[in-house]
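Figure caption, in words: inputs first, then the predicted bound structure.
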Amino acid sequence: MNLLLAEDDAILADALCEQMRACGFSVEHAPNGAVAQYLLAKQTFDVVVLDIGLPMVDGLEVLRQLRQTDASLPVLILTALDSLEDRVAGLNAGADDYLTKPFDFPELEARLRALLRRSRALKASTELGQLSMQRETRSAQVRGDMLELSPREFDLLDLLLTHQGRVITKEQINQAWSGGASAAGDGAGANNAVEVYIHRLRRKLEGAQVAIRTVRGLGYLLELERA
Ligand code: CA
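Bound structure (calcium ion present):
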């Protein structure tokens, strides 16, 4: 399990690194937000422990930017005891869980293991309504019938399911298609392509009891069909 710890308090960071390694995590430490962003861009992590109060780039900004390219990487934020605002802002920015300082290490370990379990289950299979999807085989079914999906259609469906109930933008879709890199090519053309693929996917999802809703000016979201 690869873990990124972004924490500027050197004593706390050293202690956490040591304890996490003893628990079997492979740990990278970032002493500020800029290093955290660099490591996130360069390496693959399974989970992130992110202090909110970080020098250079604060933890919330690191999280916001991470969520533009990676919606599913589990992030646990560390906040000061008295800062309810940080907690709310952190959850709004896409944190999966939070812990207030000071905390006991076993508590952190238990939270991390719960996040990892959840993320593994989500990666293996995802379901909504009568729609199910398996990432390992890149396949999806409606009422048990296999869907015929092109690679782009599958990536689009994967993104929508990962974010179910949340809006995804055309930019995020283009990034998913280009393998996480910033979308290349002309913006209008790329956006038209998104609309074409959304249209096709909607037809293929008929009978799945799910709806791809257009959120004007923002993007799309996948949700259970309203009766
Ligand atoms: Ca701090």
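Residues 8-9, 51, 53-54 surround calcium ion (CB under 6 Å).
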